[in-house]
Description:
Elements: H1 2-16, E1 21-30, H2 47-61, E2 65-69, H3 75-81, E3 86-87, E4 101-104, E5 108-115, E6 132-141, E7 144-152, H4 159-179, E8 185-190, H5 202-210, H6 216-221, E9 249-254, E10 259-268, E11 291-299, E12 304-305, E13 309-310, E14 315-318, E15 329-336, E16 340-347, E17 352-356, E18 361-366, E19 373-383, E20 386-396, E21 401-405, E22 410-415, E23 420-429, E24 433-442
Parallel strand pairs: 1-2, 7-8
Antiparallel strand pairs: 1-11, 2-4, 3-4, 5-6, 6-7, 8-9, 10-11, 12-24, 13-24, 14-23, 15-16, 15-18, 16-17, 19-20, 19-22, 20-21, 23-24
Helix pairs in contact: 2-3, 4-5
Amino acid sequence: MKASIFLVALAAELAHGAATNGKFTALSYNVAGLPQILQSNDVPGDKTDNSKQIGQYFAKYGYDIIHMQEDFNYHAAIYETDNHQFRSVTSGGVPFGSGLNSISTKNWINYTRVKWNTCSNASGADCLTPKGFTFMRWNPSEGVYIDVYNLHADAGDEDEDHVARNSNLQQVADYIDAWSKGNAVIVMGDTNCRYTRSADTVLRTGFQTQNGLTDPWIQLQRNGVYPTAGSDALLCDNPAKSNDCEIVDKLLFRGSRILTLAASDFKYDGNNFLNTNPDHKGAVLSDHNPILTTMSWSVSPSYRQSAFSGGPHGTWFNSLPSLPASPKASIITFRGAERLDSVSVQLSSGEKFTYGGTGGTAASLTLASGENWTKTVLCTGQKNSHTRNFYIQATTSSGRTLQAGTRTSDCTTYTADAGFAVVGFMGQEGDEIDQLALIYAPIR
């Protein structure tokens, strides 16, 4: 019993002590990891040695999150010399893997690999490997999540390549709409697109117009002015001599109602990734310039969120975009039996958010004037090899409780920051609640 009390107190302490702002560095780098026998990438030196040097540089600079493309057959050499704590597991070399991997100083959840719907071999062998994109919910601080994408789009300049490449980026844009609704987002990778190329339409119309993403190269280097489509390309040397030129490697971002994201610095980082081998001293290690962005985040004074409970299954949902100004919960309803089937909250303004299925038994609690939902216990378990939420208990500021489902041995207590209360949810649903996080707003 004493251990349980200590864990509950610790959870509350962590919630109240969570940071509300911070900074991080994000690097995107095509590491030219195709087998040397297939593609030299016009880079001098042995690719295994070059890859070990890339890993050494990753360790030296300690960038917070690094997305790699073309990390195929020399992946082990990079990981051998790098020291980042959190690493994706490779999907394999050519022709099995996508070449997409990530390393980070912070953890993530829900790592997913997605293959392109369309590819083209008109200018090369883009269909040789299952290129596509990856998705993760990156967790740089307690209660802070950013949906981070890594992509490698179709290359080439034939008509079929343009069709495939626009399809690739549109696939990511649509995925963001479905799986990152209401969330802060960063997209990094080798788009094989340029703003000056008229045929690369989705880079601007999809990510900017559809998803509301900002390119820090446009924002910081060009004062918000996009290059004219069809104008002469602002081609970079390798390594780039300045940040004014354009390459196909991009980073784009947006914030959310919970999290403000801002870019304070953008640069092509090629001069920090040069060969140290005496035979090739000063030569580039890849045919791509790495791009480096310094970003800051700050938590909104109007909303917060808890960590996620459960597993990455079912369909994404998020109350956040639909919350009214100054929300306050008035009725809480849960459904559950063996597991947690459904969660629902009705606000004093009339809006109601319900997620999950119709199974189990419903139980409701109407909050009194001045009463708020401030503490939650969520318990998880396994069903058909999937982690799901089995149990929920809400505790109000008046000490009243509401629960549903079956308690397990794997339970976590989530306590709202001082002055905040639960007003909504985000997570993944099916017939039950697979994954759940709580949305908090200031007490009214």
